[in-house]
Write a structure and sequence with these properties.
mainly alpha, elongated
Length: 193
């Protein structure tokens, strides 16, 4: 145990790579590109879900689930607005000097970290209502005998898949919030110098 502690204390301190305006702008552009990729994936997922739901509603498939699907589409639209409002990347203005550029970049990272750390509220919660409504409809159909015999297994798969999916989403947003906070710490170290 002593060896690990000694090795940890003896390691070199990470050198802050951002020392000039050019490096701050390059790092900001790199972070911005990652944010845009993440948000593009969220936009594509929402668009695909909206299209599939609209197609199912138009076809008249799953008539008992029509209203929860409409509510799910509304949840996707609200979440798309929230993504743009809370965690979208804002470009660093070209006319900013070194200090204002660092301050702008830091403010954007703080906005992102704040939005990402509260993703359960604005991203997950809107989907919970239609999801629980769909579960209630499925459970009611099972209890009344309207559902086919394999429905209880399907309900269990639906619940387990939902829990696993939303846990993965929460972990992904938590990881992104942590990365934003680490970047904020880097900027704080740069400002302290």
């Amino acid at each position: 145990m002593k060896d690990l502690k000694t090795a940890w204390k003896a390691q070199q301190v990470e050198v802050n790579a951002m020392t000039s305006l050019v490096e701050v702008r390059a790092r900001a552009a790199e972070v911005e590109a990652g944010v845009r990729r993440r948000n593009l994936a969220l936009y594509v997922y929402s668009a695909a879900s909206i299209l599939v739901s609209a197609w199912l509603i138009a076809r008249g498939a799953f008539p008992a689930m029509r209203y929860p699907m409409v509510l799910m589409v509304a949840a996707h639209l609200m979440v798309l607005w929230q993504i743009n409002r809370r965690i979208a990347a804002r470009r660093l203005p070209a006319d900013l000097g070194a200090r204002p550029a660092i301050d702008f970049h830091r403010e954007q990272l703080e906005r992102q970290a704040h939005g990402l750390s509260r993703a359960w509220l604005w991203y997950m919660l809107p989907f919970l209502v239609p999801f629980v409504w769909e579960l209630g409809i499925m459970l009611h159909r099972i209890q009344t005998g309207e559902a086919p015999p394999e429905a209880p297994r399907l309900l269990a798969v639906f619940v387990v898949t939902g829990v696993l999916f939303w846990t993965a989403v929460l972990l992904a947003f938590s990881r992104a919030a942590l990365k934003a906070r680490l970047e904020i710490e880097r900027l704080s170290a740069l400002q302290a110098n």
